[in-house]
Amino acid sequence: AQSVTQPDIHITVSEGASLELRCNYSYGATPYLFWYVQSPGQGLQLLLKYFSGDTLVQGIKGFEAEFKRSQSSFNLRKPSVHWSDAAEYFCAVGPRHTGGFKTIFGAGTRLFVKA
Amino acid sequence: DTEVTQTPKHLVMGMTNKKSLKCEQHMGHRAMYWYKQKAKKPPELMFVYSYEKLSINESVPSRFSPECPNSSLLNLHLHALQPEDSALYLCASSHPTGGSHNEQFFGPGTRLTVL
What's residue A29's pLDDT? Predict the structure, then answer.
């Protein structure tokens, strides 16, 4: 069955510290991978995506993620966290084929940033 | 324009009311989505329209009635809702073809409260 696992329900990091949010997926084929961020009461904003090519992808707001096929992982990283990064982060997998619409979301990881 | 707009931002309704949520995009996307999101949970897919035709209905109760009047607009008509339907309702859009174009762009959501 297709699934996305985000093992950490919440993470607290100090401002200026590095961040890594974990994501593991189970998918029958090579997936199309996303990280979204959601501030309280807001919609989801796409941080980055992986479709093919270089397995290290750069996104907005200084985030990057690395696709590791052997580990079925797509972890999100940021070298220095800012207080404004406090939000909910969702990893997701989507279909590659035309007419495939179902994006599978992980349960989310809530990021807290302390001063 | 890479924006999905949703109105209203907030909606409070009684269980006997009829109301509608509206979503609009001008990115030329031909796939549009409704999601329901409860607090501290990922979005749950409700409906997908592709080329203005209903493509996916995730067994949503009939008190929710979607409508796609044209390629830019998506409505969700609400009638006889229950308090447990209170949630953030998110609209999204994407290209309907597979591959690198099918990332979804999300609106800010409508916060619905059913009394």
Answer: 75
